[in-house]
Automatic annotation (TrEMBL):
This is RRM domain-containing protein. Residues 196-222, 350-387 are annotated as: Disordered. GO terms for molecular function: oxidoreductase activity; RNA binding. SMART domains: RRM.
Length: 585
């Protein structure tokens, strides 16, 4: 089978089978799709003559009928035969918007996706191809124009190879398919176009819209001070005045900031005086300019008179005859022109003088009585303005005094309230102090009672420990007599020392192995307060027959301890008595 496309003219008279819109779309698809233009085979719709510049060079195997309708199309694996020229055109449904998918029915049973790809890729680039088992398929193209080229193949008879069996033959029915992807892409494209249109309209509206006035800042003390400064300068006076007017229209003025608004109004009023001084200055400058203009105009008129005299001197017979006709004509024209200009300048100068005279008469040619009256009226008006300004200042001061009085009243009320609160707090603290004193006295009484009980209990314990047998008591009495005889030269024993000796003796009797000086002092201070270890040590040293100090321990653990020696003698006496009784028995 030839690889080239054989275009055979069928019936050149039937030209009403297809609409011109389809032909145009097919042609546009051929131009847009470069894959079609690079091939040697073309599907040429009816009533379309191919452009020789678009055909591949060197391919002269085709013949084109100028009014041909449909031709036989040869492919590598199949052949397409056109329908009968007298057959009615194939029916199609309404084309959905954005349609890129076609339905292909009437396919042979033995057809494959490769054959369908080979047939329809001539119409345009294919994105998806879905083949069904029921002899139909759906083909989706990249461009919408490719759908028109595919619809052109509707009604063709297809034959796979050269086989005549029914399974290898069929009649193509190509129609528009309604696909969701096509509809979605079309809707997205429409939405994008709508967004672009709205954006263009909005940009056009913004371009045509009048610019909004600049925003006015809200009132504050800082802004008010800035505006009052700007009101004093000619450059920023107008803008600052507009801001003040806006604040007043908004109702930002109240009792608190009335003084600041009054100062701004006062500075605005002072600007009037500046304007009057500027006006007088400009009037002086205008007067000087008028005087200068008069002098210049008089000089110009004088020069015009000299020029006129020159032209008159040139018209004398002695001089005039020496000029040619053309020169005489030019001199006469110049003379007329200078006279016209002089007359025009004179009229203009006279009108200006009249206007100036009228202005002078209206300003300064009034009788002196009227002037004096006007001056007195001006003075009265000035005095009235000053009086009004002073009244406004007095009212402002009164308002300030009232505000200060109200503030002072509030401060005094707050201070009185604070003093009342402090008095109540002081009374509460006094009551708490009295209550704490009462509780302290009760606690002190309880402590004294506990101390008396403790002393009584301790005395009872001492008496229990010292109670001995009669023999022991006698021996103790003898020992005490001996001790008294030994210490006959010493001073008499006081009650405090006796009490202290008794307490220490009881404590050391409980501790037969002795105790340190600090331990003894801590025990004694529970009963007798404010005793120092040195006092206790001097007392025990004073009575060596009762107390004795020994070294107990080994090496570094050695320490000095006090031992009660009185009961040691009694124990030795007891042992001797026991031995004597045993011997007698």
């Amino acid at each position: 089978m030839s690889s080239t496309l054989d275009i055979v003219p069928s019936n050149p008279t039937d030209t009403n089978l297809f609409m011109m819109g389809q032909v145009d779309n097919v042609m546009m698809n051929m131009f847009m799709n470069p894959g079609i233009m690079g091939m040697n085979n073309y599907i040429v719709p009816p009533m379309m003559t191919p452009n020789p510049n678009l055909m591949p060079p060197g391919d002269e195997t085709y013949t084109v009928g100028i009014n041909s309708v449909k031709e036989i199309v040869h492919f590598k694996s199949c052949t397409l035969f056109p329908p009968s020229p007298h057959a009615p055109p194939p029916t199609t449904r309404d084309r959905p918007p954005g349609c890129k998918t076609v339905f292909v029915g009437g396919l042979p049973e033995k057809i494959t996706e490769e054959i369908i790809q080979e047939i329809f890729e001539r119409c345009g680039e294919i994105t998806t191809l879905r083949l069904s088992k029921k002899n139909f398929c759906h083909v989706r193209f990249v461009f919408e124009a490719s759908v028109d080229s595919a619809i052109y193949l509707s009604g063709y008879r297809i034959r796979i190879g050269s086989n005549v069996d029914p399974g290898y033959n069929g009649r193509l029915h190509v129609d528009y398919a309604q696909a969701r992807d096509d509809q979605y892409e079309w809707e997205c494209r429409q939405r994008q176009l709508e967004r672009e249109r709205r954006h263009r309209e909005r940009m056009e509206e913004e371009r045509m819209k009048r610019p909004s006035p600049p925003p006015v800042t809200h009132y504050s003390d800082h802004e008010a001070s800035n505006i009052s400064d700007k009101l004093k300068h000619d450059e920023s006076f107008t803008k600052a005045l507009q801001v003040v007017i806006t604040w007043l229209d908004r109702g930002d003025c109240n009792k608190k900031n009335a003084n600041s608004f009054y100062s701004m109004i006062q500075s605005t009023n002072s600007h009037v005086r500046r304007l009057l001084t500027e006006k007088s200055h400009y009037e002086d400058e205008l007067k000087k300019a008028k005087d200068l203009l008069k002098g210049r105009m008089q000089g110009i008129l004088l020069q015009f008179s000299h020029i006129e005299r020159l032209f008159e001197a040139a018209h004398h017979k002695k001089v005039w005859d020496h000029f040619t006709k053309a020169q005489r004509k030019n001199i006469e024209g110049w003379k007329k022109q200078s006279l016209e200009i002089k007359n025009f300048q004179l009229e203009d100068l006279q009108e200006k003088q009249k206007d100036d005279d009228e202005m002078d008469v209206s300003d300064g040619d009034e009788p002196p009585r009227k002037r004096s009256r006007d001056i007195s009226n001006e003075e009265r008006n000035n005095l009235k303005d000053e009086n009004d300004s002073l009244k406004c200042q007095v009212e402002a001061y009164k308002n300030e005094v009232e505000v200060i009085k109200i503030d002072n009243k509030k401060i005094l009320e707050e201070k009185e309230l604070q003093t009342k609160i402090l008095q109540q707090a002081l009374q509460g603290m006094q009551q708490q102090l009295m209550e704490s004193k009462r509780k302290f006295s009760i606690a002190d009484q309880r402590v004294k009672m506990m101390e008396s009980r403790y002393k009584n209990d301790k005395a009872s314990k001492v008496t229990e420990i010292i109670n001995l047998d009669d023999d022991d008591v006698d021996q103790a009495d003898n020992a005490s007599v001996q001790c008294q005889s030994e210490s006959s030269n010493a001073s008499a024993l006081s009650s405090a020392e006796a009490k202290l000796i008794g307490i220490i003796s009881v404590f050391l009797n409980v501790h037969p192995f002795g105790a340190g000086l600090d331990y003894i002092t801590s025990y004694v201070n529970k009963s007798i307060h404010n005793l120092r270890p040195s006092d206790i040590e001097t007392l025990m040293v004073k009575y060596p027959t009762v107390f004795k100090q020994d070294l107990i321990g080994i090496g570094a653990n050695m320490e000095r301890r006090w031992i009660l020696t009185v009961f040691g003698k009694t124990q030795s006496i007891r042992k001797n008595n026991a031995r004597s009784r045993g011997d007698s028995e």
